[in-house]
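User: Is it possible to get a 3D structure for a protein together with its bound compound? The compound here is iron/sulfur cluster. I've pasted both below.
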Amino acid sequence: MIHGTIVVAKDICKACELCITACPQECLELSPHLNEKGYRYAQLKNDTCTGCINCAIVCPDSAITVYRESKKKNAS
Amino acid sequence: MENVVTKNEMEIVYKKPKTITDTPMHYCPGCGHGVVHKILMEVIDELGIQDQTIGIAPVGCAVFAYDYMNIDMQEAAHGRASAVATGVRRVLPDKYVFSYQGDGDLAAIGTGETIHTVNRGENILMLFINNGIYGMTGGQMAPTSLIGMKTTTSPYGRDAAQVGNPIKITELIAQLPGAYYVTRQAVHTTQAVRKLKKAIETSFKYQKEKKGTCFIEVVSNCPSGWKMTPVEANVWLEKNMFPVYPLGDIKSPK
Ligand SMILES: Cc1ncc(C[n+]2csc(CCOP(=O)(O)OP(=O)(O)O)c2C)c(N)n1
Ligand code: SF4
Ligand code: SF4
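Assistant: Yes, that's possible. Here is the predicted structure of the complex:
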């Protein structure tokens, strides 16, 4: 399985949960902690992210950056 | 959870488009306006037309669109975005010009401008964000509100006998010869966003070829006005908005 990860701009996130619904791996959740706006920002809850970018595409606040294992590294 | 794999072993496969500014958006959580802004700027980045594109902002929740889109923009009076876009595109015929409007702006106070802009076949892209309500002013009934929909000005639900049926302005303008490409899209899922992206790319291509007016309706949400969570709003939208506003091309060139 291709491995990926995401970084959420935690003070931009508004806890809308649309990324959580969009994630086919069910690897996102809301943090128990609040950001500076008072929202429980989104975060990864496990290591099953494949870097499919679904979450980032639906995020209205463009808060998600997605990383994926490079193909070069897979081949070696 | 901390990231298990260090990010330097990985490559970035998605990040915020560079033409979206770093200004935090004022939109409510989960509002479709942010998704439309992002995908529009993504297309502009990919086509490399940031310095050749001029956007016209509406009155409505997207009134500050110019703070988020790092392109030349002009604010218009309520409902008049397509008229302003007409002027801009006629004076600068080699630029890419789009208007961006909500349903109150485009299909209520701006109905006249909307119809006549399309009738003239102006070479612009009209983006129409239909969330079935006046978001900015506190959730009043829009011409596009559904039958039975409860809003602050239709507390018992929209009654067709009193205020008419939801207006399908997109189908209406598609009848006009000036309309070249007319489509209805959405932003509630990844697949929907990808289709909208394709429609925007297609519209800019036609604009370059001076084919006439391209018109994209985006069936969107207003979680605050609808009094739902964003996730609930997107489920409600699929169940209730799509039967009245079905997705797909309404007029496309052969
Ligand atoms: C001439 C004039 N009339 C009325 C208003 C009040 N007003 C501001 S925004 C708006 C409608 C907004 O609804 P919509 O266009 O659907 O956009 P949304 O906020 O839902 O994105 C109205 C009636 C105004 N600003 N100017
Ligand atoms: S979609 Fe964006 S704003 Fe919404 S919860 Fe996820 S990261 Fe936060
Ligand atoms: S009021 Fe509605 S349309 Fe306006 S920003 Fe909030 S959710 Fe979006």
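DSSP finds ten helices and ten strands in chain B. The radius of gyration of chain B is 18 Å.
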